[in-house]
């Protein structure tokens, strides 16, 4: 079987890439022939918002298929795509260029086989994703796999290009995850959610392959929705000029690819090392949590830190919408209406429209990691795609203040009395002298 054939070494593949091969066409190997063909599901906005512009619609579909391939098992990797080795980790079998002269290679990786290094063919990100991720995240990366509707929170829809747990500056689609961020998410999973930890199931090499496939699906989806957005301002008559390959490249593709490429240079590195979790530091963090300097943590996380703050829809309504009924297409509509009609309106969901709770900060479990640095990033830059805002550069002006909050957050689960009888600190006024009863020291 051709897929088992050991092809040429990656080194050769790299040389070919440098020689300026254009589009790379990839095909997964494996059980594809035995199952029904995979298809990308249509972008909802493309179908609905552009329904009166058939030519714009058709052109967008064509452009996306030309760039990324018409179906998951007929992938194309556009030049400049933000994946490793020009896409060399994405599939078992790669075709360089098009036409009868096109060359086919089977990428290999070095594997330690009982002390000896062997070259083995890779499975590729696509095959690994199909096996391990697709039933949740869907063939298009839209989070709509068959397991999805039964989970809360739902599997991520990658197509918005927004990732919650990143270490990079900016918000929303500007704050792309670094490969290290994705490695953490995929390797360790997201605690408190159905997102599994894969580091005992996949080798480090395989995790790199699947990271590239997540980036591929996300970039495809973000380019597609960027084009739909552009398409709304274009008339059918102007399609040829407005959505020409050059124009699409410049107005959408380049921007999406650059965001990914810039992520590694965009990491927020604390300028000061973590301050020691002294009593004083923890208590300063507590005052920030309760409103000093205008910080609003308690309005979402609650005065007791358990995640039931007034800004969010109450727990009972949330529980009813999410857990007391089987999934149906309009499952969350009622909750949304309830939240939006409250006075003042309540928060209820993330940017994907999935109901959300502020974290319960008394249980010492965090989706995005429990290292002090992880908590630093959550507080300093917020959680993309959710109401949890960034605080460094707005209310918090230096790293030590962020570390005070980190020290408080990490102490709280071990010293719940820290928030006994807590009251909001009046904004802008100096902190009142409050001394919590317990004396246990934190951090260890
Ligand atoms: C059982 C279902 C399930 C499987 C299988 C699964 N995921 Fe997830 N994944 C989730 C859920 C649920 C979330 C979202 C959690 C949230 O929103 O808090 C998620 C989120 C993510 C995120 C987004 C992280 C962020 O910062 O926003 C990435 C990336 C991801 N998964 C990658 C993968 C990859 C790669 C695989 C396969 C190797 C995989 N997932 C398999 C359920 C799953
Ligand atoms: C506007 C509401 C809001 C405010 C204000 C807010 N948060 Fe959050 N926070 C959230 C939500 C919602 C989540 C859960 C996000 C998710 O699970 O996707 C969260 C999650 C967290 C987490 C858990 C991160 C993880 O990895 O699971 C921590 C820690 C946290 N917030 C700390 C704080 C601190 C400290 C402040 C104040 C400086 C603060 N939050 C202000 C809404 C808020």
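Sequence proposed for the structure above (444 residues):
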């Amino acid at each position: 079987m051709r897929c088992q054939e050991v092809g040429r070494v990656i080194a050769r593949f790299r040389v070919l890439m440098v020689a300026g091969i254009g589009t790379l066409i990839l095909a997964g190997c494996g059980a594809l022939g035995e199952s029904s063909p995979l298809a990308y599901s249509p972008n909802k906005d493309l179908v609905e918002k552009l329904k009166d512009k058939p030519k714009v619609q058709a052109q967008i579909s064509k452009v996306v298929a030309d760039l990324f391939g018409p179906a998951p098992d007929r992938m194309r990797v556009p030049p400049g795509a933000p994946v490793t080795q020009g896409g060399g980790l994405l599939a078992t079998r790669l075709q360089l260029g098009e036409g009868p002269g096109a060359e086919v290679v089977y990428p290999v990786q070095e594997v330690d086989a009982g002390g000896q290094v062997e070259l083995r063919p890779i499975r590729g990100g696509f095959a690994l994703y199909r096996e391990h991720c697709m039933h949740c995240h869907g063939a298009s990366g839209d989070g709509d796999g068959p397991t999805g509707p039964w989970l809360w929170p739902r599997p991520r829809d990658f197509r918005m290009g927004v990732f919650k747990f990143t270490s990079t500056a900016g918000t929303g689609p500007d704050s792309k995850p670094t490969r290290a961020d994705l490695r953490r998410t995929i390797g360790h999973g997201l605690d408190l959610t159905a997102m599994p930890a894969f580091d005992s199931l996949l080798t480090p090499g395989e995790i790199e392959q699947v990271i590239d496939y997540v980036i591929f699906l996300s970039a495809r989806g973000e380019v597609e929705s960027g084009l739909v957005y552009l398409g709304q301002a274009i008339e059918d008559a102007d399609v040829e000029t407005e959505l020409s390959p050059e124009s699409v490249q410049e107005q959408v593709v380049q921007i999406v690819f650059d965001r990914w490429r810039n992520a590694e240079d965009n990491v927020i590195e604390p300028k000061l090392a973590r301050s020691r979790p002294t009593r004083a530091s923890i208590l300063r963090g507590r005052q920030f949590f309760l409103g000093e300097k205008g910080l609003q943590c308690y309005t979402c996380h609650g005065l007791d830190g358990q995640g039931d703050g007034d800004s969010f829809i109450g727990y009972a309504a949330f529980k009813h919408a999410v857990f007391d009924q089987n999934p149906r297409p309009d499952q969350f509509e009622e909750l949304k209406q309830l939240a939006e009609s409250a006075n003042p309106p309540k928060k209820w969901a993330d940017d994907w429209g999935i109901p959300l709770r502020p974290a319960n900060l008394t249980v010492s479990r965090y989706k995005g990691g429990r290292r002090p640095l992880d908590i630093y990033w959550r507080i300093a830059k917020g959680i993309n795609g959710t109401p949890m805002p960034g605080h460094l550069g707005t209310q918090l002006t230096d790293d030590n203040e962020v570390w005070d909050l980190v020290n408080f957050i990490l102490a709280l689960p071990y010293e719940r009395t820290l928030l006994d009888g807590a009251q909001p600190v009046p904004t802008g006024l100096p902190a009142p002298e409050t001394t919590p009863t317990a004396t246990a020291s934190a951090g260890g």
